[in-house]
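Sequence only, no structure available. Ideas?
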Amino acid sequence: MSDVAARVVAVSAPGYFISFEGGDGVGKSTQARLLGRWLGELTGREVVLTREPGGTELGKELRAAVLHGQDMDARTEALLYAADRAHHVASLVRPALERGAIVVTDRYLDSSVAYQAGGRELGADEVELISRWAVQDLMPDVTILLDLDPAEAAARIRRQHDRLERAGSEFHRRTREAFLARAAADPDRWVVLDASASVDDLQAQIRVDVAARLELTPVVEEAEDTVAAAPDDGFDDSDSAIGYEPGRGLAPGAAAGPAGEGGAASA
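Reply:
I predicted one. Tokens follow.
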């Protein structure tokens, strides 16, 4: 293991938790995969790439219900997301962190507050309270918000829209505003990036910030020059863009890619 890798282990033990947030179509799945691959190669540690909803077998069933099932009221929707998150954290995220893994999740608690409180106009305090209770206050070390105009993001989605994607322009405007408000209220945790940038440029910015947070000063400049981005698939559907397989993690040093290439599970 290199000196840099040894420093990563020392700084981030027992684990390090990274979440990606933003509207549908902003490119979270692609960026999460690229960051996970890079961190695995750099540190030699286990990297668990996951998502919400759908990071576990039970989560896949809840994902199908909440995104592709029958219409439901806002409170039912919020509680289903909280149930998925409680199981996801108890069975996958927390155990991975406790064994020293780096966990990268495509969506987490902030999505519930932005979508159900902002978009659905439920009470933000109530939605956050339910979600924090579900995860016993486990919060990410860093949250990366990919910000993009909802109309531009929607144009990237080249498949049938799910329930939330069909919720209308005002819903998505409120959701975006809620994300930005949460980021402004907690700047130490959040990194806000313009998602209209290219895949390569976005990934370089993300790597520089994560390297700095892990106090990897020798790696910061290198991170800007070592982006090997996969082609942007142009949409943010986690099932297609990442190919999650619930319960699978990345062995130390393995690449963070689709399940058939050593990828893992995780809204």
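The longest strand covers residues 16-21.
Hope that gets you unstuck.
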